[in-house]
Amino acid sequence: MKKVLITGGAGYIGSMLSTELVKLGFFVTVVDLLKYNKNALSHLYFFKNFKFIYGDARDKKILKKLIEQNEFIIPLAGLVGAPLCKKFKKDAISTNYGAIKSILELVSKKHKIIYMTTNSGYGIGEKNKFCDENSPLKPISLYGKTKCDAEDLFKNYKNSICFRLATVFGCSFRMRSDLLVNNFVFRSVKDKKLEIFEPHFRRNFIHIRDVVSGIIYALKNFKKLKSNIFNLGLSSANISKIMLANKIKKQNKKIKIKVIKSRKDPDKRDYFVSNKKIEKKGFKAKISLENGIKELLIYFKNNPDKIINNY
Ligand SMILES: NC(=O)c1ccc[n+]([C@@H]2O[C@H](COP(=O)([O-])OP(=O)(O)OC[C@H]3O[C@@H](n4cnc5c(N)ncnc54)[C@H](O)[C@@H]3O)[C@@H](O)[C@H]2O)c1
Quick one: average pLDDT of 171-175? Predict the structure, then answer.
Protein backbone atom coordinates (compact mmCIF):
# COMPACT_ATOMS: atom_id res chain seq x y z
CA MET A 1 0.00 0.00 0.00
CA LYS A 2 1.51 3.35 -1.06
CA LYS A 3 1.99 5.75 1.84
CA VAL A 4 1.22 9.39 1.16
CA LEU A 5 1.81 12.37 3.44
CA ILE A 6 -0.28 15.45 2.65
CA THR A 7 0.44 18.69 4.48
CA GLY A 8 -2.55 21.03 4.36
CA GLY A 9 -4.68 18.03 3.45
CA ALA A 10 -7.82 19.52 5.03
CA GLY A 11 -7.89 22.43 2.57
CA TYR A 12 -9.82 23.06 -0.65
CA ILE A 13 -7.67 20.73 -2.79
CA GLY A 14 -6.39 18.53 0.04
CA SER A 15 -9.76 17.42 1.39
CA MET A 16 -10.88 16.27 -2.07
CA LEU A 17 -7.53 14.60 -2.76
CA SER A 18 -7.33 12.79 0.61
CA THR A 19 -10.86 11.44 0.15
CA GLU A 20 -10.09 10.04 -3.29
CA LEU A 21 -6.78 8.51 -2.19
CA VAL A 22 -8.36 6.81 0.83
CA LYS A 23 -11.08 5.40 -1.47
CA LEU A 24 -8.38 4.03 -3.80
CA GLY A 25 -6.61 2.27 -0.92
CA PHE A 26 -3.58 4.52 -0.41
CA PHE A 27 -2.44 4.99 3.20
CA VAL A 28 -2.97 8.70 3.75
CA THR A 29 -1.58 10.85 6.56
CA VAL A 30 -2.72 14.46 6.76
CA VAL A 31 -1.07 17.13 8.88
CA ASP A 32 -3.10 20.34 9.07
CA LEU A 33 -3.92 23.19 11.45
CA LEU A 34 -7.60 23.11 10.40
CA LYS A 35 -7.68 26.86 9.83
CA TYR A 36 -10.96 26.73 7.92
CA ASN A 37 -13.57 23.96 7.85
CA LYS A 38 -12.82 21.87 10.96
CA ASN A 39 -14.95 19.02 9.58
CA ALA A 40 -13.45 18.90 6.11
CA LEU A 41 -12.03 15.41 6.77
CA SER A 42 -14.32 13.99 9.44
CA HIS A 43 -15.83 11.54 6.91
CA LEU A 44 -12.38 9.87 6.76
CA TYR A 45 -11.72 9.35 10.48
CA PHE A 46 -13.43 5.94 10.33
CA PHE A 47 -10.98 4.46 7.81
CA LYS A 48 -7.94 2.40 8.84
CA ASN A 49 -5.90 3.72 5.91
CA PHE A 50 -6.30 7.31 7.10
CA LYS A 51 -4.50 9.21 9.83
CA PHE A 52 -5.06 12.83 10.85
CA ILE A 53 -2.49 14.82 12.77
CA TYR A 54 -3.34 18.25 14.08
CA GLY A 55 -0.04 20.06 13.65
CA ASP A 56 2.04 22.73 12.02
CA ALA A 57 3.67 21.85 8.68
CA ARG A 58 6.56 24.18 9.64
CA ASP A 59 7.45 22.10 12.69
CA LYS A 60 10.60 20.20 11.69
CA LYS A 61 10.15 17.60 14.46
CA ILE A 62 6.71 16.64 13.18
CA LEU A 63 7.91 16.71 9.57
CA LYS A 64 10.95 14.52 10.25
CA LYS A 65 8.90 11.74 11.82
CA LEU A 66 6.20 11.84 9.16
CA ILE A 67 8.62 12.00 6.24
CA GLU A 68 10.44 8.90 7.54
CA GLN A 69 7.12 7.01 7.57
CA ASN A 70 5.98 7.95 4.06
CA GLU A 71 7.14 7.47 0.49
CA PHE A 72 5.13 10.20 -1.28
CA ILE A 73 4.85 13.77 -0.02
CA ILE A 74 2.29 16.25 -1.30
CA PRO A 75 2.87 19.62 0.40
CA LEU A 76 -0.34 21.67 0.17
CA ALA A 77 -0.13 23.59 3.46
CA GLY A 78 0.04 27.25 2.76
CA LEU A 79 -1.42 30.70 3.00
CA VAL A 80 -3.18 30.77 -0.33
CA GLY A 81 -3.99 33.87 -2.37
CA ALA A 82 -2.58 37.39 -2.57
CA PRO A 83 -4.86 39.11 0.01
CA LEU A 84 -4.16 36.54 2.76
CA CYS A 85 -0.39 36.67 2.21
CA LYS A 86 -0.45 40.47 2.25
CA LYS A 87 -2.20 40.32 5.64
CA PHE A 88 0.09 37.72 7.23
CA LYS A 89 3.45 38.27 5.54
CA LYS A 90 5.68 36.34 7.97
CA ASP A 91 3.41 33.30 8.08
CA ALA A 92 3.11 33.36 4.28
CA ILE A 93 6.88 33.17 3.86
CA SER A 94 7.48 30.61 6.61
CA THR A 95 4.69 28.31 5.36
CA ASN A 96 4.73 28.69 1.57
CA TYR A 97 8.51 28.78 1.30
CA GLY A 98 10.06 27.79 4.67
CA ALA A 99 8.10 24.55 5.11
CA ILE A 100 9.05 23.42 1.58
CA LYS A 101 12.70 24.16 2.27
CA SER A 102 12.48 22.07 5.47
CA ILE A 103 10.88 19.15 3.60
CA LEU A 104 13.68 19.21 1.04
CA GLU A 105 16.28 19.20 3.82
CA LEU A 106 14.66 16.12 5.40
CA VAL A 107 13.97 13.87 2.40
CA SER A 108 16.17 11.04 1.18
CA LYS A 109 16.41 9.26 -2.18
CA LYS A 110 13.39 7.04 -1.51
CA HIS A 111 11.01 10.00 -1.32
CA LYS A 112 8.86 11.35 -4.12
CA ILE A 113 7.32 14.81 -3.98
CA ILE A 114 4.39 16.22 -5.94
CA TYR A 115 4.21 20.00 -5.54
CA MET A 116 1.40 22.39 -6.54
CA THR A 117 2.32 25.84 -7.62
CA THR A 118 0.48 28.49 -9.57
CA ASN A 119 0.60 29.74 -13.14
CA SER A 120 -0.54 33.15 -11.95
CA GLY A 121 2.73 34.87 -12.77
CA TYR A 122 2.36 34.24 -16.50
CA GLY A 123 1.35 37.03 -18.78
CA ILE A 124 1.12 39.80 -16.24
CA GLY A 125 0.34 42.96 -18.13
CA GLU A 126 0.83 41.36 -21.54
CA LYS A 127 -2.19 41.11 -23.72
CA ASN A 128 -3.16 37.67 -25.07
CA LYS A 129 0.17 36.19 -24.16
CA PHE A 130 0.73 32.52 -25.04
CA CYS A 131 2.45 30.67 -22.20
CA ASP A 132 4.08 27.31 -21.85
CA GLU A 133 6.39 25.94 -19.14
CA ASN A 134 9.35 27.89 -20.58
CA SER A 135 7.64 31.25 -20.29
CA PRO A 136 9.08 33.35 -17.49
CA LEU A 137 7.10 33.71 -14.28
CA LYS A 138 6.93 37.26 -13.02
CA PRO A 139 5.00 37.12 -9.75
CA ILE A 140 3.77 40.46 -8.50
CA SER A 141 2.19 39.43 -5.20
CA LEU A 142 3.94 38.03 -2.14
CA TYR A 143 1.82 34.90 -2.62
CA GLY A 144 3.13 34.44 -6.18
CA LYS A 145 6.67 35.13 -5.07
CA THR A 146 6.65 32.60 -2.21
CA LYS A 147 5.25 29.96 -4.58
CA CYS A 148 7.81 30.67 -7.34
CA ASP A 149 10.68 30.69 -4.83
CA ALA A 150 9.51 27.34 -3.46
CA GLU A 151 9.17 25.90 -6.98
CA ASP A 152 12.74 26.97 -7.64
CA LEU A 153 13.97 24.75 -4.80
CA PHE A 154 12.81 21.67 -6.71
CA LYS A 155 15.36 22.26 -9.47
CA ASN A 156 17.87 20.47 -7.25
CA TYR A 157 15.55 17.62 -6.30
CA LYS A 158 15.05 15.19 -9.17
CA ASN A 159 12.42 13.04 -7.44
CA SER A 160 9.76 15.66 -7.85
CA ILE A 161 6.92 16.74 -10.11
CA CYS A 162 5.67 20.34 -10.04
CA PHE A 163 2.22 21.24 -11.31
CA ARG A 164 1.54 24.86 -12.18
CA LEU A 165 -2.18 24.96 -11.63
CA ALA A 166 -4.71 26.99 -13.53
CA THR A 167 -7.38 28.71 -11.42
CA VAL A 168 -9.31 25.90 -9.77
CA PHE A 169 -13.12 25.75 -9.66
CA GLY A 170 -15.77 23.43 -8.23
CA CYS A 171 -17.07 22.21 -4.87
CA SER A 172 -14.99 20.85 -2.03
CA PHE A 173 -15.41 19.76 1.59
CA ARG A 174 -13.56 23.00 2.46
CA MET A 175 -15.16 25.52 0.14
CA ARG A 176 -13.54 28.62 -1.35
CA SER A 177 -15.53 31.42 -2.92
CA ASP A 178 -12.60 33.69 -3.68
CA LEU A 179 -11.48 31.75 -6.78
CA LEU A 180 -12.66 33.42 -9.99
CA VAL A 181 -15.27 30.92 -11.30
CA ASN A 182 -16.55 30.11 -7.80
CA ASN A 183 -16.70 33.84 -7.04
CA PHE A 184 -18.61 34.77 -10.23
CA VAL A 185 -21.16 32.02 -9.61
CA PHE A 186 -21.50 33.08 -5.96
CA ARG A 187 -22.05 36.73 -6.93
CA SER A 188 -24.52 35.78 -9.62
CA VAL A 189 -26.60 34.03 -6.93
CA LYS A 190 -26.19 36.59 -4.16
CA ASP A 191 -26.34 39.89 -6.12
CA LYS A 192 -28.23 38.65 -9.21
CA LYS A 193 -25.73 40.62 -11.26
CA LEU A 194 -22.10 40.50 -12.34
CA GLU A 195 -20.06 43.65 -12.64
CA ILE A 196 -16.95 43.04 -14.69
CA PHE A 197 -13.84 45.14 -15.26
CA GLU A 198 -11.56 44.52 -18.21
CA PRO A 199 -13.86 41.81 -19.57
CA HIS A 200 -11.54 40.50 -22.25
CA PHE A 201 -8.75 39.39 -19.96
CA ARG A 202 -8.24 35.67 -20.49
CA ARG A 203 -7.42 33.05 -17.88
CA ASN A 204 -7.11 29.27 -17.75
CA PHE A 205 -9.26 27.16 -15.42
CA ILE A 206 -9.43 23.58 -14.11
CA HIS A 207 -12.01 21.63 -12.11
CA ILE A 208 -10.90 20.49 -8.66
CA ARG A 209 -11.66 16.85 -9.54
CA ASP A 210 -9.35 17.11 -12.54
CA VAL A 211 -6.62 18.45 -10.22
CA VAL A 212 -7.15 15.38 -8.03
CA SER A 213 -7.07 13.07 -11.07
CA GLY A 214 -3.86 14.74 -12.28
CA ILE A 215 -2.17 14.18 -8.91
CA ILE A 216 -3.29 10.54 -8.84
CA TYR A 217 -1.95 10.14 -12.39
CA ALA A 218 1.38 11.52 -11.15
CA LEU A 219 1.40 9.13 -8.17
CA LYS A 220 0.80 6.17 -10.48
CA ASN A 221 3.20 7.32 -13.23
CA PHE A 222 5.87 8.96 -11.13
CA LYS A 223 8.86 7.65 -13.10
CA LYS A 224 7.42 8.83 -16.41
CA LEU A 225 6.70 12.35 -15.12
CA LYS A 226 9.46 13.04 -12.59
CA SER A 227 12.00 15.90 -12.77
CA ASN A 228 9.50 18.05 -14.62
CA ILE A 229 7.26 21.07 -14.30
CA PHE A 230 3.84 20.87 -15.98
CA ASN A 231 1.05 23.34 -16.52
CA LEU A 232 -2.16 21.69 -15.36
CA GLY A 233 -5.34 23.21 -16.75
CA LEU A 234 -8.36 22.47 -18.95
CA SER A 235 -7.28 23.35 -22.47
CA SER A 236 -10.80 24.26 -23.63
CA ALA A 237 -11.08 26.67 -20.69
CA ASN A 238 -8.68 29.39 -21.81
CA ILE A 239 -11.45 31.96 -21.79
CA SER A 240 -12.10 35.61 -21.01
CA LYS A 241 -14.03 36.92 -18.04
CA ILE A 242 -16.92 38.01 -20.26
CA MET A 243 -17.12 34.54 -21.85
CA LEU A 244 -17.22 33.05 -18.36
CA ALA A 245 -19.97 35.47 -17.28
CA ASN A 246 -22.02 34.53 -20.35
CA LYS A 247 -21.60 30.83 -19.58
CA ILE A 248 -22.96 31.49 -16.08
CA LYS A 249 -25.88 33.53 -17.49
CA LYS A 250 -26.84 30.57 -19.69
CA GLN A 251 -27.57 28.58 -16.51
CA ASN A 252 -28.65 31.47 -14.23
CA LYS A 253 -30.74 33.39 -16.75
CA LYS A 254 -32.03 36.15 -14.49
CA ILE A 255 -28.67 37.80 -13.87
CA LYS A 256 -27.55 41.08 -15.40
CA ILE A 257 -24.00 41.40 -16.71
CA LYS A 258 -22.59 44.89 -16.53
CA VAL A 259 -19.22 45.78 -18.02
CA ILE A 260 -17.65 48.71 -16.20
CA LYS A 261 -15.33 50.43 -18.65
CA SER A 262 -14.11 53.15 -16.33
CA ARG A 263 -12.58 50.74 -13.82
CA LYS A 264 -9.36 48.79 -14.20
CA ASP A 265 -8.93 45.35 -12.70
CA PRO A 266 -5.95 45.23 -10.31
CA ASP A 267 -5.47 41.66 -11.50
CA LYS A 268 -3.62 42.14 -14.80
CA ARG A 269 -3.54 38.53 -15.94
CA ASP A 270 -4.37 38.03 -19.60
CA TYR A 271 -2.93 34.87 -21.03
CA PHE A 272 -3.47 31.68 -22.97
CA VAL A 273 -1.87 28.69 -21.26
CA SER A 274 -0.71 25.60 -23.11
CA ASN A 275 -1.25 22.30 -21.29
CA LYS A 276 0.27 20.24 -24.12
CA LYS A 277 3.28 19.02 -22.13
CA ILE A 278 1.21 17.05 -19.58
CA GLU A 279 -1.30 15.99 -22.26
CA LYS A 280 1.56 14.44 -24.26
CA LYS A 281 2.50 12.46 -21.14
CA GLY A 282 -0.99 10.94 -21.07
CA PHE A 283 -3.09 13.12 -18.76
CA LYS A 284 -5.80 15.50 -19.97
CA ALA A 285 -8.22 17.49 -17.83
CA LYS A 286 -11.81 16.82 -18.92
CA ILE A 287 -14.46 18.35 -16.67
CA SER A 288 -16.18 21.24 -18.40
CA LEU A 289 -16.85 24.69 -17.03
CA GLU A 290 -20.56 24.07 -17.70
CA ASN A 291 -20.61 21.09 -15.33
CA GLY A 292 -18.65 23.04 -12.73
CA ILE A 293 -21.05 26.01 -12.97
CA LYS A 294 -23.99 23.62 -12.57
CA GLU A 295 -22.68 22.17 -9.31
CA LEU A 296 -21.62 25.60 -8.00
CA LEU A 297 -25.08 27.05 -8.63
CA ILE A 298 -26.63 24.30 -6.51
CA TYR A 299 -24.01 24.85 -3.81
CA PHE A 300 -24.40 28.62 -3.56
CA LYS A 301 -28.21 28.59 -3.88
CA ASN A 302 -28.28 26.32 -0.84
CA ASN A 303 -25.55 28.15 1.08
CA PRO A 304 -26.20 31.81 0.29
CA ASP A 305 -24.68 33.10 3.53
CA LYS A 306 -22.04 30.49 4.24
CA ILE A 307 -19.41 32.10 2.10
CA ILE A 308 -15.84 31.39 3.02
CA ASN A 309 -12.90 33.43 1.87
CA ASN A 310 -9.38 33.09 3.13
CA TYR A 311 -9.10 36.57 4.48
N1 LIG B 1 -6.83 26.51 -5.37
C2 LIG B 1 -6.12 27.00 -6.38
O3 LIG B 1 -6.67 27.59 -7.35
C4 LIG B 1 -4.60 26.80 -6.41
C5 LIG B 1 -3.93 27.19 -7.58
C6 LIG B 1 -2.56 27.03 -7.61
C7 LIG B 1 -1.87 26.47 -6.53
N8 LIG B 1 -2.55 26.11 -5.41
C9 LIG B 1 -1.77 25.57 -4.30
O10 LIG B 1 -2.37 24.39 -3.77
C11 LIG B 1 -2.17 24.33 -2.36
C12 LIG B 1 -3.51 24.14 -1.65
O13 LIG B 1 -4.38 25.22 -1.96
P14 LIG B 1 -5.90 25.23 -1.50
O15 LIG B 1 -6.66 25.96 -2.53
O16 LIG B 1 -6.32 23.85 -1.13
O17 LIG B 1 -5.81 26.17 -0.19
P18 LIG B 1 -6.51 26.06 1.25
O19 LIG B 1 -6.32 27.38 1.90
O20 LIG B 1 -7.91 25.59 1.11
O21 LIG B 1 -5.67 24.94 1.99
C22 LIG B 1 -4.50 25.17 2.72
C23 LIG B 1 -4.52 24.25 3.94
O24 LIG B 1 -3.28 24.43 4.63
C25 LIG B 1 -3.54 24.47 6.02
N26 LIG B 1 -2.43 25.18 6.66
C27 LIG B 1 -2.08 26.48 6.53
N28 LIG B 1 -0.95 26.74 7.22
C29 LIG B 1 -0.59 25.56 7.82
C30 LIG B 1 0.49 25.16 8.63
N31 LIG B 1 1.43 26.02 9.00
N32 LIG B 1 0.55 23.88 9.04
C33 LIG B 1 -0.40 22.98 8.67
N34 LIG B 1 -1.44 23.29 7.88
C35 LIG B 1 -1.53 24.57 7.46
C36 LIG B 1 -4.89 25.16 6.17
O37 LIG B 1 -5.50 24.83 7.41
C38 LIG B 1 -5.64 24.58 4.95
O39 LIG B 1 -6.32 23.41 5.30
C40 LIG B 1 -1.43 25.61 -1.97
O41 LIG B 1 -0.07 25.32 -1.84
C42 LIG B 1 -1.68 26.54 -3.13
O43 LIG B 1 -0.65 27.47 -3.29
C44 LIG B 1 -3.89 26.26 -5.33
Answer: 95
Ligand 1 pocket residue status of 9, Cβ below 6 Å: no
Q: Which residue lies with its CA nearest to atom 34 of ligand 1? A: 32
Ligand 1 atom closest to Cα of 208? Answer: 1
pLDDT higher than 80, residue 80: yes
Q: How far apart are CA 62 and CA 68, in angstroms?
A: 10
Where do the domains of the chain lie?
Answer: 3-302
pLDDT band, residue 48 (cuts 50/70/90): very high
The C-alpha R_g of the chain, in whole angstroms, comes to: 19
Mutate which of 12, 180, 206 for ligand 1? The one with the most ligand atoms within 8 Å of its CB, which is 12
* Burial (0-12, 13-18, 19+ Cβ within 10 Å), 242: middle
Rounded to two decimals, the pTM is 0.96
- Give domain 3-302's CATH architecture: 3-Layer(aba) Sandwich (3.40)
